[in-house]
Structures are given as structure tokens and as C-alpha cells.
Amino acid sequence: MDKRIPVTLLTGFLGSGKTTLLNKLLSDAKMHDSAVIINELGETGLDHILAMQVDSEHIADNTVLLNSGCICCSLKNELADTMRDLFFKRALQAIPQFNRLVIETTGMADPGPILGNLMNEPVIESTFRLDAVVVTIDSVYGLTQLESNPEALKQAAVADVLLLTKTDIASPETTQALQEKLAEINPGATQHLIQHGEINPDSIIDVGLFDPTGKTATPQRWLRTPGKASTPKGTLPQKPHQDGITSFTVTMPKPLNWRDLKPVILKLCQTHGAKLLRLKGIIHAEDQPAPLAIHAVHFTPYPPTLLEGWDEEEAMSRIVIIGKDIDEAEIRKALMQI
Ligand SMILES: Nc1nc2c(ncn2[C@@H]2O[C@H](COP(=O)(O)OP(=O)(O)OP(=O)(O)O)[C@@H](O)[C@H]2O)c(=O)[nH]1
């Protein structure tokens, strides 16, 4: 079983309600065993967030603020250093024990490099695992922001959970239009409508590859194959949305060996990395003792996770790809040729 510390990456465009959400989340007893890394641009300080944590000194002691840049670019190394530092302090019991890490990014963050950072550095990869990318979207301004800001679009595209905030002040029609747009951009993500950051933490945490009891893998939930419109079995390419973001599933041929597929995934990342926002898959390979969960972001494929003790009735290998201006036909061809 995967004993690594689960990480929730909380991102969302400027002013979309990340801090409001985090404040509410952290005041819930279920979250009191969390450590938090907050990345803010500027000198806001921690007071605004910690003001509400009166009953959780635990979180106050386990919260780190990075505020001299953005963790997707200028503070890349600081994020890795901070995560390592938190882990070693935890091991030495120099800080309260924590069983979860929440990272709040700035509103302009590109989640791609952050995900890369999380999974590409040996110490971090062996001690932390990504649970889910949670993205807040402003229900009033979300549609406009998705149209005019590539960052907002990328955030929405790689999300596992989309939280449509401020539904108290958006008209039902606007919220509905945003929901439809988000379902086009990222049909695999779960959507929740929220107000003032109120949401049951269970909808956000432990929604990844492993279930909260830590006993079994739940990859179907993690993979969340896009809906029927995006799951063609043939090789006909999907028409990309106007914004160029596409999400599609490739059902892999059988039988399949990981030793044959691995180089194809590597090559795919090398060739299409710039446009590949996220790749997730479940692989039933004949040369593996159990199914594999695979994951890649841009140019970087990550070590696969062996899903020991888990299997499915119909052993169907599938790979979900989310990309911007990505050549779907090319990718399908490459994958189907193995
Ligand atoms: N009416 C209403 N206001 C909200 C809601 N969620 C957040 N807000 C307000 O929206 C503003 C921005 O919220 P924040 O939580 O600071 O947003 P953020 O994403 O952390 O902002 P940045 O850190 O600047 O990117 C604040 O004034 C919040 O009080 C909501 O559900 N309804």
C-alpha cells in the first residue's frame, strides 16, 4: 500500500476563492492533521489565513508561507526544499505530525510545472504523492477568465475537482453556462457548486488513486474517464474546442506489455510534451503482477504505481489525455501501434 503523504494541490485564478476555501477547510476537524504551504505574491502574510485557525495550533505550526515569487516558476526549488524540510521535521518530530499536505498556489500559477516538481524529485516522489488537483473557478467571471487567461484554462483543464465558487452572487444561467464550458474543457473532473468556501472536505480530499482508509486503490474514480462524447473507440479525432483544449481516452489493444508501452509513453512525452497538460492511465500489462496507474505531465512521465490487490472485471487498459492544441490523431496512432 502506498504510504506516501497525500498532497492536495489547490489552485484557481486570481480572486476565485482559494483562500476563502482553505480557511473553511482548515477549520474542519477532518483537516486538522494537515500541513499547508501557501504561495502568495507579495507581503500578505499568514495572518489572514491563520486568523480563523484559533482552535488548531497544529495547523499554525505546520504552515509555511512562500511569498517572494511563484512556485510554478521562480520558486520552483523553494517548493521542493519546503516539502523536503516539512517531511524531515515530521520524521524528527520537530513539528506536529501531519498526514496530508495542502499546497495553495497563486492565482496565476501554471499547475503543470508544479505537478512536475512534485513528482520528479526523488526525495519528494518517494515521500509525497499527488492526491488531487482542486481548482476554484469564479462563477461570475469564470467564463471570461477562461477565454482571456491561458493560466485559468490550464488550471481548469488539469483539475480533478472543479469548485465553482460564489454561486450566491452569480445568476443560475451564468453558473449553468460555466458548468457546461467546464464539462467541455475537462469532462473527467467532478464539479461542485459552492458558496463562501463551504464544502465537505470529503469531496476534495482522498479523491485520488487510493481511498481514505488507505487499504485499496480506487483508480476508476481517479481516472474518471471522460463522458460518452469524448470516448470514441475508433480512431476518429475529436474536434477540439475553440480554446484548443481537448480531452480524450485511448482504449489500448490487448494483450499489452509494459516493456513495450513504456518507451511509447516516453516518446509521446518527448514529442508532444509542450502541449500535453496531463496524461493518466490504467494499464493491465501481461508482464506486471498487478495493474499499473500511469501519470505524466508535459515532458515528464512519472514512475508508475503498481495497484497491488486491485483488479477490474473487464481488464481494459485506457489512457486519458488532456492537451492544448494537441494532435489527437497522431497520439492515437502512436499508442495503437504498440
Ligand atoms: N459572495 C461571495 N464571495 C466570495 C465567495 N468566495 C470568496 N468570496 C470573496 O471573493 C474574494 C476573493 O476571495 P479569495 O478567497 O481571497 O480568493 P483567492 O483565490 O484566494 O484570491 P487570490 O489569492 O488573490 O488569487 C474575497 O473578497 C472573498 O470574500 C463566495 O462564495 N461568495
UniProtKB/TrEMBL annotation:
- CDD domains per record: CobW-like
Q: Where is the CobW C-terminal domain?
A: 245-338
Show the SMART domains listed in the entry: CobW_C
What InterPro entries does the record tag this protein with? CobW-likC_sf (IPR036627), CobW-like_C (IPR011629), CobW/HypB/UreG_nucleotide-bd (IPR003495), P-loop_NTPase (IPR027417), Zinc-reg_GTPase_activator (IPR051316)
- For the region Disordered, what residue ranges are annotated? 216-245
- Give the catalysed reaction(s), semicolon-separated: GTP + H2O = GDP + phosphate + H(+)
Q: Which GO terms describe its molecular function?
A: hydrolase activity; nucleotide binding
Kindly state which keywords UniProt assigns to this record, in alphabetical order: Chaperone, Hydrolase, Nucleotide-binding
An annotated GO cellular component of this protein is: cytoplasm
Record family assignment: Belongs to the SIMIBI class G3E GTPase family. ZNG1 subfamily.
What does this gene product do? Zinc chaperone that directly transfers zinc cofactor to target proteins, thereby activating them. Zinc is transferred from the CXCC motif in the GTPase domain to the zinc binding site in target proteins in a process requiring GTP hydrolysis.
Identify this protein by name. Answer: Cobalamin synthesis protein P47K
Lineage of producing organism: Bacteria, Pseudomonadati, Pseudomonadota, Betaproteobacteria, Nitrosomonadales
